[in-house]
Amino acid sequence: MGNAALRDIAVIEEVPFDEIEGVVAVDAHNWLYRYLTTTVKWTDSSKYTTADGTEVANLIGIVQGLPKFFENDITPVMVFDGGPSELKDDEIESRREQRRSYEAQLETAREEGDAVAIAQLESRTQRLTPTIQETSRELLRLLDVPIVEAPAEGEAQAAHMVRRGDADYVGSEDYDALLFGAPLTLRQLTSKGDPELMDLEATLERHELTLEQLIDAAILIGTDFNEGVSGIGPKTALTAITDHGDLWSVLEARGAHVEHGDRVRQLFREPNVTDEYEFETALDPDLEAAREFVCEEWAVDDDEVARGFERIDESVTQTGLDRWT
Amino acid sequence: MFKAIVSAETLTSALDSVSVLVDECKIHLEEDGLEIRAVDPANVGMVDLSLDASAFESYDADGGLIGVDLSRLEDIAGMAESGQLIQLELDEETRKLHIQIEGLEYTLALIDPDSIRQEPDIPDLDLPAEVILEGKDVNRSVKAADMVSDHIALGVDEGEEFFYVDAEGDTDDVHLELTQGDLIDLQVGPAHSLFSLDYLKDMNKAIPSDTEVTLHLGEEFPVKIYFGFAEGQGQVTYMLAPRIQSD
After folding, report:
1. Which domains, from first to last, does chain A contain?
2. Is B244 within 8 Å of A319 when comparing Cβ atoms?
3. Which of B45, B118, B244 is facing A317, going by the closest CB pair?
4. Is the pTM of this model over 0.90?
5. Low pLDDT (below 70) residues in chain A
6. What is the C-alpha separation between B1 and B4, in angstroms, rounded?
7. I need a surface site. Which of A93, A114, B92, B120 has the fewest CB within 10 A?
8. What is the pLDDT of residues A179-215, one digit of tens each?
């Protein structure tokens, strides 16, 4: 997603959950979109629609998605995108938003081998509605999962937190995390099986590039914020950047143009992030309150969330032997 | 190099006590016997097993390491009738285990030990209470608790000097007290911890009713369960992490 062509460039390997520990700064919108899409696709809408017609499939998605962190002793910190941006980049921002929701649906549909579902999904998961935004945060608070509000891009903020050493990994399906300078990114946290670990330093070493050059190469291929240069794929982009040094020299040499090139570059190089955040990593979820919030206040069918709550409960009450080693 | 002959009962007891926790394990073929250490994927239950060379009819090994699929090996061992001997021989070239039981030959493909979960570090536990009791009393406690709950509390009453088992269900409760007289030995100390019966039930399957079992307990600490098999030439230590008690 984001820039899927980056997959060909990035150093990625599957890692068993046992080998992962610490704090994951999760790109919350990316994560939510994924669960929202799956829930909408697989669950009868009556299970998550209130009497007045408000849909809160996000609550089911969150309860299904969180146990994975708890069971593997990983602390998630949910990093939310900033509100409607006051930046001049509105056009760019909205474009990204649209693509992300679309990509999430597409990936789900692709995974399930079902193309028909896309249209149906699209209308309902296009945006994270204000209700979804609010109820997601409230449920996470009840479950004691830390929340960080990013000034702009959640993914950029998450990468910033890992660089500062406050988290160990960025959690995102998006390959763009690499461009935001995330040292280590966990992918497939929303899928079955083991996650993938994407390593920035190893990636730069493999291609003998600086991060700035990697960003330039990505801009040539195309990112969430810009169309790439026609005819340039991952291989060509890498060679061109290695040969010419940076984006502008490549464009000049090829007589090509990238719209908003300088702004996109700036977005990755100096994203709008903040140091103003704090969170605790020892989680003490209030499962009773969470269950009441989801099932009573928002009238979500109890059966849809019972198993998820049970899994969280089990993982917080059962200790592991590693506590004594 | 590894070549050994062992009774079906001894091999089965050893394998069963490990397979209740994991599907695959590494077996150390030491000069003086077999050693297995494994922990379940959730890191809640651990087994530390040793089977001395003297438990075998004959035993010859020089410190190799093999990985096995436990249920396959158990199935094969299950082909032996009571009293029959099982011969095991490692083919270093093909990395296969040749197994012979009264003319039946079975060649078992081994698993790359590196692909098996890492062996756990043994927790460093200083447990104040020690309870020695008969296997059948452990069997009975677990069975009774399982009728009413998913959890079981094990503890020692320091004042009255008895070991107790508590299980609280939604409607029914179970309580069992064993005093000095009922036990083989008791060393009192502060002890009360809650455990998952899912795990304890599995471990209990491997505890023979006629064996002596030693429990080491603390306050919200793992329990250590020790017992011997194969006439004391095999030793099993289980460790089980507690559940946090909400009240």
Report:
1. 1-88+125-207 (3.40.50.1010), 208-271 (1.10.150.20)
2. yes
3. B244
4. no
5. 1-3, 83-127
6. 10
7. B92
8. 999 999 999 998 888 999 999 999 999 999 999 999 9
